[in-house]
Amino acid sequence: MSSLYVHIPFCKHICSYCDFCKVFYHEKWAWQYLEALAYEIQQKDLKQDYQTIYIGGGTPTTLTYEQLQYLFDLLKPFAYQVQEYSIEINPETMDHEKLALCLQNGVNRLSIGVQTFQDDLLKKIGRVHTSSQAKAFIQEAQNMDFQDINIDLMYGLPDQTLEDVYQDMETLNQLNVGHVSYYSLILEDHTILKNINYQPLDDEEDAKWYEIIRQQIQQYGYKQYEVSNFYRFKPSLHNLVYWHYQDYDGIGVSAHSLKNGHRLENTKSLTRYLKHDFLASDISLTLQDQLFEKIMMGLRLNQGLSIEEMNQLYRIDFLNQYQKVITKYQQMGFLEIVDGYLKTTFSGINYLNNILIDFLDE
What we know:
Blueprint: E1 3-8, E2 10-11, E3 23-24, H1 27-43, E4 52-57, H2 65-75, E5 84-89, H3 96-104, E6 109-115, H4 119-124, H5 131-143, E7 148-155, H6 162-175, E8 179-184, H7 192-195, H8 203-219, E9 223-226, E10 229-231, H9 237-243, E11 249-251, E12 256-259, E13 262-266, H10 270-274, E14 279-284, H11 287-298, E15 305-306, H12 307-314, H13 318-321, H14 323-331, E16 335-338, E17 341-344, H15 352-361
Parallel strand pairs: 1-4, 1-11, 2-3, 4-5, 5-6, 6-7, 7-8
Antiparallel strand pairs: 8-10, 9-10, 12-13, 13-14, 15-17, 16-17
Helix pairs in contact: 1-2, 2-3, 6-8
């Protein structure tokens, strides 16, 4: 699977929990940015046959109709073999014309930043769309034949109750959305909520809410395939590339690429990027780095890690090399081996960080 990530950093509003690379939208800056993106594309040896393209942000749909068309034209030479073409959307930045433009240019998957369907909570986290806007947009997209739709939901928001979470899941079920990414609120440095000392759920409460969500959402017919991701119809092909630790290309400010044992990181500075100085670092990953990162990503998946693949890729006896940590967590009921895959158990997924620390120490 060959994949391309494209970062568009512009937002019309900055949410109180967000730590992604973003700047307020300004039409002149946006045109300059797209021209700088065209320059980076010219300088890079990008493939002509990407199977997945993911346009993320920021909020890509803050771009005007004309700017979005320019972006799609830039990406057209790389989209001829694309199977999954995704774009991130906030409901308030979209209209019928932009939605039709996405469809015309081959986009077949929408990832919609909803976060919650409770209007009072949306205001508290700095979102400017309403619940009714989000529902109407999802239904409009479905009516226009967008069947592959993801929505992002969050738990642990300020003043959010478990009843709010149950209502969000009920609405998700009623809308018949095919995929959901359900995230716990994590406070990062330099976010608004962090600066005002908001206290998120403690670890015990977080684990309790997470288990409730996993159980309830699967009763609605969603299958969990990764720590935070559930699908009714099909998983995200693009995100599976990350979790399977396969190479991918990234373009745009703050974008990363993984290629031939190197992690390439673009600058987070818009000023630098607009001056065509896009590459910030080229990190050569040791075989040990790659081995651990493969374990770290693979154990996020419900399917887990293929033991045979680990042996072949890294020329090791995986079970022997990590016998101590695997046995420890098998005895605790947190890891299991099923059909040649090492995976976390239903309860073990709550202790993934502890498990990974032990793998790192080994």
